[in-house]
Design a protein that fits this description.
Length: 232
């Protein structure tokens, strides 16, 4: 993909605003899931620090929101004190709560769109609202699959690294070494830069295959929705 994400504001505003809505809602709920899990497992840090809120500015911060609008890159954070968590694998449960929420959001969007297409297939009578509604559900399904899978990779600072470290003490000890931290950071950026070529096409194939199975329509039908002309 050439150019900055913000260029789509003029070329395809539906895509620009659809991605903004999808990513902001998805990251906010992802971080809240971490917070709820931490509270259930004995750590009230998310509540004490005022992070148990639906305000995306609290979870993402101004810089993340600006980077999302300009470059399509965003992140979030939920403060958790791992020393206050109860249970041997509590840290894993807190970490995995975020990606699990993204899988749930993806499932709701995919099932909703799949049933919509099964019961009322897209046609000329659907109008702009019908097309844009389907488009937004497709974005929610696709991007939440992406967020879930990407965050489960066992590389810091992603959630998957905390899950693996909780189960494999040797991995956690390795992460504390300066050399390992440098290597992991390089691996993270390599994965991040390659996500567009590997994870995105894979997520699109998984999403459209699931939609095809639910709707009874070919996967190509949903590519048509994704690449359709923006509604006026």
């Amino acid at each position: 993909m050439g150019g900055l994400f913000i260029s789509s504001l003029s070329t395809d505003p539906r895509f620009f605003f659809g991605v903004l809505i999808t990513v902001i809602v998805s990251i906010t709920l992802h971080e809240l899931a971490h917070g709820f899990a931490a509270l259930r497992l004995g750590d009230d840090t998310p509540e004490v620090t005022g992070h148990m809120t639906l305000n995306p500015l609290v979870h993402m911060g101004g810089l993340s929101l600006v980077m999302l609008a300009i470059a399509g890159i965003a992140w979030g954070a939920m403060p958790v004190d791992r020393t206050r968590l109860r249970g041997r694998y509590a840290e894993s449960l807190v970490a995995i709560a975020g990606p699990a929420t993204n899988f749930l959001l993806a499932g709701v969007a995919i099932v909703g769109l799949g049933l919509w297409e099964r019961l009322a297939p897209l046609n000329e009578a659907s109008g702009v609202t019908g097309l844009n509604g389907r488009y937004l559900l497709l974005l929610f399904g696709l991007y939440n699959v992406l967020l879930a899978v990407f965050n489960l990779l066992p590389v810091p600072p992603l959630d998957g690294s905390r899950v693996v470290a909780n189960f494999v003490p040797a991995y956690e000890r390795a992460l504390s070494q300066p050399l390992a931290q440098g290597v992991m950071m390089a691996v993270f950026f390599a994965i991040f830069m390659g996500a567009g070529r590997i994870i995105v096409p894979w997520a699109m194939n998984v999403t459209t295959a699931a939609l095809a199975a639910i709707s009874g329509l070919p996967a190509e039908h949903f590519y048509m929705i994704f690449f359709s002309e923006p509604g006026a």
